[in-house]
Amino acid sequence: MCDISTDAAWFKQCLSDNNLCKKLAAITVVMCDVDGALTDAGIYVDQNGEGGRIFSVQDGYIVKPTMNAGVTIAFISGKNNRSACERAKSLGIPEELCFAGMETKLEVVKALQKKLNVTPEQSLMFGDDFMDAEVKRSCCAGLYVCPSNTPFYFQPTADLVIPRCGGNGAFRLMMDLILFVRGQHFAQKYIEATLK
Fold first, then answer.
1. How many separate domains does the chain show?
2. Using CB atoms within 10 A as the burial measure, which of 54, 84, 186, 190 is most buried?
3. Residue 93 covered by a domain
């Protein structure tokens, strides 16, 4: 169950940090881990082996408005799973922006930044584990954001911890914040009225 009052309090706290808002407004590419960040980290396994995952509809709903606002979204998964690529495809994320089965994310991030001509300061890494935190520790992303289910020992590396778990609207809440500080949220007036 989600606590809406917690979301609103977190949102207001973020907005009170001018430096954070400035960094969020500069983001032009969001690189997302999949398992544990866009999903609840659960995997279906049957007699045929590893199966699919559950993704949040709310997370998916924010993808198109984000891309329409000029922010690129890429999926970078450590696991080689078809469900991540299928989810990206269903959301309109181009195939060349979906990477699965990556043993390290650093090289993918650097190549992606070069291809998109973006700096680390324009890049945000959203993820919940070691390879995601390493992107930040290696100075390849200006911001590292993680959901609340991230292991406690990686959370101190994050610039922002979302008060929701992966696969439970964490990505949506993060993108709501980014689009809002850019003044490009489709529900800008609703958010403003709620935060008064």
1. 1
2. 84
3. yes
**16 domain-assigned:** no
Count of beta carbons in the 10 Å neighbourhood of residue 141: 28
Q: Any residues with CB less than 8 A from the CB of 153 and at least 6 apart, and which?
A: none
Query: Rounded to whole angstroms, how far apart are CA atoms 94 and 195?
Result: 35
Other C-beta atoms closer than 10 Å to the C-beta of 94 total 12
Mean pLDDT of 40-65: 86
Residue 25 lies in a domain: no
Q: What is the pLDDT of residues 95-134, one digit of tens each?
A: 999 998 888 899 999 999 999 999 999 999 999 999 999 9
Q: How far apart are CA 47 and CA 111, in angstroms?
A: 37
Domain span at residue 139?
Answer: 39-116+123-195
Residue 7 and residue 194 in contact, taking contact as beta carbons nearer than 8 Å: no
